[in-house]
Every structure is written in structure tokens, then in C-alpha cells.
Amino acid sequence: MSLIVVGTMAFDAIETPFGKSDRVIGGSATYVAYAAANFVQPVQQVSIVGNDFPQEEMAELSRRGVELDGVEVVPDKPSFFWSGRYHMDMNTRDTLVTDLNVLADFDPQIPESYQGAEFLMLGNLMPSLQKKVIEQLKERPRLIVMDTMNFWMEIALDDLKEVLTMVDVLLVNDSEARQLTNEFSLVKAAKKILKMGPKYLIIKKGEHGALLFHGDNVFFAPALPLEDVFDPTGAGDTFAGGFIGHIARTKDISYENMKTAIIVGSAMASFCVEKFGPERLKEITRADIDRRLQQFQELVNFDIELV
């Protein structure tokens, strides 16, 4: 039940209304791996880092069952670096610095030992790289999940639409769904996106939960109301890690099981925002996750009698 995760491993500098961090570990693949490894091992990582990426971080990922054969280490360049500032609503942010560094040369290669993986999580990357990963796999995974963002819709829309025909599940936020389809209604947007190729669409709405679309079916999962939200960076990637981790653990790719996977993803994301970077994800135990899932169950469980 192996899982391939493709994405960035990087450094972030983050400023929110509630605090500031100088340089913390970040990157889509990092967050996905820390979340997914709670449910499935091995997590087979594909990424690129520079000479400044901490060896202790690599060791911590390895200890959690993350295989790093697909992570290229470039000895003479620094790692990808992003800096951003969040507004008071914590849903909008300004990018202050983007230094691609080694990411400018990223040419993902799938190691032979990764071939035959049942599940593939394509983190937010250039669509042409996502396509290249899929084409390198000798056997198509049972489920391919893809994340993307508004930037690629602006500069690589044709490539993005091509990759959409090759994947099973698309993850976007509400503004990205609207941008991709020119529809304000998320229901109308979802119908258009599902015609582009994916069988399932997940629209993330931050603190307002997530929507799952499949055919004419719609499922809504709330976000857990939290007293303290320090840093939303990586929450979407952590959600994706929890989602694909549950799917890979259960090996059940049905619509009904995806409902559960969305709750698991939401639970994992609720941990992520409690501290800067992936620090909170490193602290939690399976018992913590089970308690958080119970909170979600209590949040949405109710009896109603119509008279």
C-alpha cells in the first residue's frame, strides 16, 4: 500500500497577526509526508533540496517511514524559499519573497524502487512536471490525486488542463475553482471541472471546511472551530496528506470512503495550524488524532425529527 508523494521541500518565513517565524521547514511534500505517514508507510518522497536542508529533518522523515530515494540533493545551491504575510482573516496572504533556487532545476525522477505504488499524490507543482511523473510510472496507480493553484492557471493553463485528463482527484480552493471555470457558483464550477477529467473534486474552503463532488453527489465536511490559529501555511497540504493517507491505508477508493478521508484530512489540517511550520505535526500521536476525529464526529452528528 505504498504511496508516492511529489512536491517541494523548502524553507518558509511566515508573518501572521499572531506571530512571526524567520526560517522554518516547509514545502508541499514535507507537509503531505508528515500527515500521511501517520496512516501509511512507506511514503515514497520525490522532491529536490539544496545544501542547506537540515540533515536532521531528513532523518526525522526517515524515522517516520518516509523513503528519500527520490529526493535529489543539490550540493551547490540553496533550497526553495518562500516568505509571506497573512492578513487578519488568515485566509488571504501576500507573498513577500519567492526564491526558486534548486526548484528552478527540478526534474523529478521516479526511482525503480517506487514503481508499482498503488497511490500517487501530486503536490502543487508546475503541471508539466506533474505530467512527467505520471508518464514515468510503468503501472498506473489505483488513485492519482493532484493539487494545483491559481499561478498555474495564469501561466500554464493548457498544460494544467492536459494533466486534469490524467488524474482521478483534483484539490483546489474555492477561488481557484472559480478562476478555472469562470463560474461564481461552486456547484456550477464543480460540474465544469468534473467534465475536464477528474472523477472527484475537493474544494477547500479554509476555516469553512471542504466540499467533495462526484457526479451529482456533494458532501460537506466542516472545519473544526479552533481557539488559536497561528499559521495556516501548509494546512492544505496537510489536509491532502491526511486524505491520501487514509485512502492508502484502507485501499478503498469509493465515494463513501472519500467522505471519511476528507474528515481525516480536516482533522490533520486542524493540527497543522496550531504552530508554525510542521512542528505540531511532529508532536501528535495516533491517540491525539483519534481524539480529534472524535471531536469532528461530535461536531457533525445530530438527530432530527421532522413532523
Number-wise, the strands total 13
The CATH superfamily title: Ribokinase
Radius of gyration: 18 Å
Cα shape: globular
Describe the structure.
The chain has a nine-stranded mixed sheet, sandwiched between helices. A four-stranded mixed sheet has the order 3-2-6-7. The chain has helices at residues 28-36, 55-63, 127-136, 150-155, 157-164, 174-181, 186-195, 235-250, 255-272, 279-283, 286-300, and strands spanning 3-6, 10-16, 19-26, 43-49, 66-73, 80-86, 93-99, 119-122, 143-147, 169-173, 200-204, 210-214, 217-221. Helix 1 crosses helix 8, helix 8 (235-250) crosses helix 9 and helix 9 (255-272) crosses helix 11 (286-300). With 307 residues, the chain is of the alpha/beta class. Helix content is 37%, strand content 25%. The longest helix has 18 residues, at 255-272. A hairpin with a 2-residue loop joins strand 12 and strand 13.
